[in-house]
Amino acid sequence: MEGRLQVFSGNANLALAKDIAACLNMNLGRATVSTFKNGETRIKIEENVRGSDVFIVQPTCTPVNNNLMELLILIDAVRRASAARITAVIPYYGYAKQEKKTTGREPISAKLVANLIRTAGAHRVLTMDLHAPAIEGFFDIPVDHLQAGQLLSEYVRGLNLKDPVVISPDAGGVGRANAFRERIGASLAIIAKQRPRPDAVEMLEMVGDVAGRPAVIVDDMISTGGTLVEAAKSLRQRGATHVYACATHGIFAGDGISALRDSQMVETIVTDTIPQAPESVDARIRTISVAPLFAEAILRIHKDLSLSALFS
Ligand code: R5P
């Protein structure tokens, strides 16, 4: 790619965007991202982007709709300012759990959001651990889909757990948990859960043995924390000595943090795809930065180099 590399950010996760820029030895591009008195999002790009290779960092986390609008309007602004190529860098892709209909008369919001991003003018998307990998196919533009498994498993390996078991807290996460298990040299157990109503969780059954062994639950996201709290309870009842949890996206919706604080979890490890409170607030929640990985991916995209090495 010929043009200059420039990185801009909305307000969703400024700390991560700055860290990514720092890893690239550059400053964030200057932009005003604020709100008009009437509540509408106000964007002004404060430097020249003509002919540039622009990356806009904006996870669509809470406040989801505001952050999404900032992303769309930032893309529109740099497109109209004649950027040569625009990559939407979306470390956490919101609305991903609405990727299919579960009953009649429901939307497929994850697809709608993909359409909006494309229509706004993005040429590419760089994201991480989509709730459902098939969402990649909702875009008719290239999507580079990073995974945090390598970073999270390195941390867990460093804990030197004796004979650990990796747990998938639902059937949909078995592939992810199995990849994690291979990385840390553990065995696998699977929990079957059901949701009697939205945001409520019930553990049904478990396949695998955890008695007398430490358990590591691996998930893509922690939303209300209900899945982890129930899984930890069930694992302890089945004899697990300690329970740890790893998830790429720490949303901690509602009382999620206090639910985990009151749970039987020894430590919960998340990344900074979504802004996290400092560890001083709760030492049992550890945050691992994905900034170096995103910076490397951005550099490779800019230089038209392969990203395969980052996926393994
Ligand atoms: C579900 O399919 C996901 O992988 C997570 O298990 C889920 O989103 C966690 O939600 P919560 O923390 O609200 O139980």
Any overview of this molecule?
The model has no long low-confidence stretch (mean pLDDT 95). 30% of the residues lie in helices and 26% in strands. The longest helix has 17 residues, at 64-80. It contains nine helices and 14 strands. Bound molecules: ribose-5-phosphate. Residues 169-170, 172-173, 199, 201, 219-227 line the site of ribose-5-phosphate (R5P).
Quick summary of this structure?
The chain has 312 residues and is of the alpha/beta class.
Largest sheet: 7 strands, mixed
* Share of residues in strands: 25-35%
The stretches of 5 or more residues where confidence is low (pLDDT under 50) are: none
Radius of gyration: 20 Å
Number of domains: 2
User: Element order, helices and strands?
Assistant: EHEEEHEHEEHEHEEEHEHEEHH
Which CATH-level-2 architecture of the largest domain? 3-Layer(aba) Sandwich
Q: Secondary-structure blueprint of this entry?
A:
Blueprint: E1 5-9, H1 14-23, E2 31-35, E3 41-45, E4 53-57, H2 64-80, E5 85-90, H3 109-120, E6 124-128, E7 143-146, H4 149-158, E8 165-168, H5 174-184, E9 187-194, E10 202-207, E11 215-222, H6 226-237, E12 243-250, H7 256-261, E13 265-271, E14 285-288, H8 291-302, H9 308-311
Parallel strand pairs: 1-4, 4-5, 5-6, 6-7, 8-9, 8-11, 11-12, 12-13, 13-14
Antiparallel strand pairs: 2-3, 9-10
Helix pairs in contact: 1-8, 2-3, 4-5
The structure holds ribose-5-phosphate.
